[in-house]
Amino acid sequence: MNPSTALAQVLVDELLRCGVRHVVLCPGSRNAPLAFALHDAAAAGRVALHVRIDERSAAFLALGLALRGGAPVPVVCTSGTAVANLHPAVLEADHAGVPLLALTADRPPELVGTGANQTVAQPGIFGGAVRAAPVLGVPQRCSGQQAHWRSTVDRAMAAARGALGGRPGPVHLDVPLREPLVPEPEPDWPEPLDGRRGGAAWTALPAPPSQPVAAVELDLSRRTVAVAGHGAPAAPDGIPLVAEPTTGCWPDALGAGPWLLGAPGLPRPEQVLVLGRPTLHRSVGRLLAGPDVAVTVVSEDPQWTDVAGSAVATGTALRTTGIPDRDWHRAWTTADATAAKAVASTLDGTSGLDVARQVVAAIPDGSLLMIGSSNPIRDVALAAVPRPGLTVLANRGVSGIDGTVATALGAALAHDAPCYALLGDLTFLHDANGLLLGPAEARPDLTIVVANDDGGGIFALLEQGEPEHGAAFERVFGTPHGTDLAALCAAHRVPHDSVTVEALAGALAPQPGLRVLEVRTARSGLRALHARIREAVSGSWSAAPR
Hints:
Blueprint: H1 3-17, E1 22-25, H2 32-43, E2 48-51, H3 55-69, E3 73-77, H4 81-84, H5 87-96, E4 100-106, H6 146-161, E5 171-176, E6 196-197, E7 200-201, E8 215-219, E9 224-228, E10 241-243, H7 257-261, E11 271-275, H8 282-289, E12 294-298, E13 311-315, E14 317-321, H9 326-346, H10 352-362, E15 368-371, H11 375-383, E16 391-394, H12 404-413, E17 419-424, H13 425-430, E18 446-452, H14 470-478, H15 485-491, E19 496-499, H16 501-507, E20 514-520, H17 526-537
Parallel strand pairs: 1-2, 1-3, 3-4, 4-5, 8-14, 9-10, 9-11, 11-12, 12-13, 15-16, 15-17, 17-18, 18-20, 19-20
Antiparallel strand pairs: 6-7
Helix pairs in contact: 1-2, 1-6, 3-5, 3-12, 9-17, 10-11, 10-16
């Protein structure tokens, strides 16, 4: 047996001993020993192997599997630019605290810097985005190496899980391999490679230790509003709550909360409780930036939301005192009921807001819903009625649109009930390679709903969408593409249907396999529609009792 084959067999075995159940593999030459070892493990029923030809989509597939499953998922690739294509998913995993293992084959040190083909300096390529970045020594044909190999895998897995201190996140394991890279007929090796010493099995990783808790105290008798974002803990009862859809407390939140925060005449709270990392709404940002509001942050994310630097206290847990003001809470809930009716009556059936409202209302209990960044996640927050019974996920670490199709497929592969994704057209096109599945690859029960407004609708709602920028807007911000999504899906042999907003709810009944539902929406009137909703909501406070 050659050294590269021996190392690959040991690494794969130790990954499985450490609890890995899914691995994503990209084809390549330098990572061939790992590919053979993974194929053998999958054939033996020890691991679910997913093969993808695009490293960027592969990394986001692994991210989705880890995001839903909670356990580290390796993505294995060859050397060179293949490694660089993992970077977007590594960044998302870093900021979102997702345990991802970038397992990259590398050229041996003597080839680096010599002009050898497909050779780059891989150590440190992900910078500070990874929790650890061990580099294995080049394997030799001698005994006594597997202890180091297995220990390195154990440490990498522990770092990805957050068991070495800090949050879970990505780890880069760099594996230099010399030729030969394919198995040889002779299986002999100087020592057994089954992970046993003296008849005892190597020990899998222990559970992560509990993290230190730093509690902050908050007096709820003061007029308080809570805003919750990605990674939010449970919100205290009895105070108005504005929550993003990916939080566990979204079903208990004010349905029209983001609109109310921007409404004229809003009574100012004395303090705001920030839970997790809210990033969606400018109205939340303006509230937190107010000089007359005390901000308390409770989050396990070291990059908690405090853009304006206004937080007076931060911690990882909350200790409350005082009794919430019932009249204050009643005023908010009454205003919310009025505002929610105003939103519903103003929607015109042509926008992504309508699509989001229909999707959230129609999909069955137990479903997983993956929401794309840009407008879809905001459309859900602004127009859908919060409800329990769903697992709502999104790439909110760095909020990019890339890799979302693959992330949705990965999450769906780890979910045992119907799965849905709500994406914009640019998000869908940006990761069209996520649809590229070989005939032997598992296909989850996933319905991808694409709200297609032929471009970047979110920019119509930002400063770029002001009328004075009209001459430049359409080409450099609106970016119409005119792509035939049906033809694109046909090329990937993925079923596609075009449906209207009115017919969407009926089309969302669970179906087996992967499919795409395209809903044509309009973005030309999007800015005006949002203005009409804000105007309709503006009277909500006048209807609330004081």
